[in-house]
Amino acid sequence: MFNKRTTYLALLAAALGGANAHLAAWHEGMYCLNGNTGNQDLNSYDIVTPLYQLPFRDWWFHHVNRCDEFPPAEGKYIDLPAGGSFKIEIASNRAKTELSYGGRDTSEWPDGQSYPQDYHDAGCITSPNMHAQDQSRAAGTAFAISYHSDLKDVTPENLVVFSVRYNTPWKRIIYYDVPSALPACPPDGCTCAWGWVPNGCGQPNMYHQAFKCRVSNAKSNVPVKVPAQAPRWCEGNEGGCVGGSKQMIYWNQKEGNNVVVDGRDRRGDFKSPGYNMGMGFRDGAQNDIFGGSPTQGSSSSTSKTTSTTKPTSTQGAKVNNAPTSTSTGSSSPSSSGSSSSSSGDKSTGNSLTGSSSSSSSPAETPKAFSEKAQRPQSCQRKRRRAAAEKREEARREEVKREDLVKREEVKREEVRREEVKRAIGGHHAVHAKRSF
């Protein structure tokens, strides 16, 4: 016999989108493939836990349940063929992928079940939990790359989005395009990340997980430009979008957010940043992310390469026939005069100082220090004061962003409460009719 409290809790869970069958990206090169126990688990699902209102250290690469502490098996990577594409599975747990039981429990869909091709729900599709009413409302997902082999060295600034797939997650299998100019990784590989920020329709959480990856068929030695910039909401104003290399979207966390939105979008919904043109991300390979001096020890060729044949995607023509740029995104070496170093991923290629320390002879070093020592103290004080003012301004901006995020969350909470009230009211009305 259900009492009022049981009924209320059930309705509350339904109204908020539930807590089961969330989704993640699966590949043998992923962290947390077997969960966080250290033992083989063909039915693992620790990585699918959504990230919401967490401190940076907890949401960054899913540290909240220690998923970042369980790297893939030795020699397992995502292979990124420059100019080609790679396959990823989206699923509610490992058992619903080809990585368990020989794919026995898989289907076209992320939870192993069957649904109509025009699957839709005016409220919100919760099985599987795609946080969307239909495919057109799926927010988009993305892969990013950092040219650091050690996960501890990866930061939001050196983790650059290189591939986006519109209207995902939807079906289980997704193919992501790789820029033809993507350079080779270090000997121990690169670190990649998958991200998804749902478009409302339930708790406005975030997904962020780590992979080992490496680039094959690399022909260019122009590095991915870092530090990457934070993306910016620019719906309907392409000129206001952030161009070039962009960070992933980090949103609705206690700290570390790099995106602030307020108000409603064109559809009348609360703004929700996603991997789409609303945030300046084009579908497919991101070909504008390169810049700086060519790295040493790489191929000297920077010519365009021919893309490998892309497998037919299960995402539908609307997704895979979207036009993608053919530009390699390569830029000429920096005019700063600095020679390339072995750590090319740290080169920004846009230094305002015009430093040429790497090409200076040892005899020039004392001169540089001597000139610095002879600078008037008043100038040094001015520079320190200006730097302090800049830090204070940045701090105030961060406080403003956090305040906007909190206000937006209050608005969302009010909307959710109204939905719960309506759901409960409707339930009582039906129950009253059935009692007589």
UniProtKB/TrEMBL annotation:
Its main location: secreted. Keywords: Copper, Disulfide bond, Glycoprotein, Metal-binding, Monooxygenase, Oxidoreductase, Secreted, Signal. It holds the Pfam family LPMO_AA14. InterPro entries: LPMO_AA14. The keyword Metal-binding applies. Residues 1-21 form the signal peptide. The keyword Glycoprotein applies. Residues 386-416 have a biased composition (Basic and acidic residues). One of its GO terms (cellular component) is extracellular region. It is found in: Secreted. Residues 262-416 are annotated as: Disordered. Its cofactor is Cu(2+). Belongs to the polysaccharide monooxygenase AA14 family. This is Uncharacterized protein. It comes from Ephemerocybe angulata.
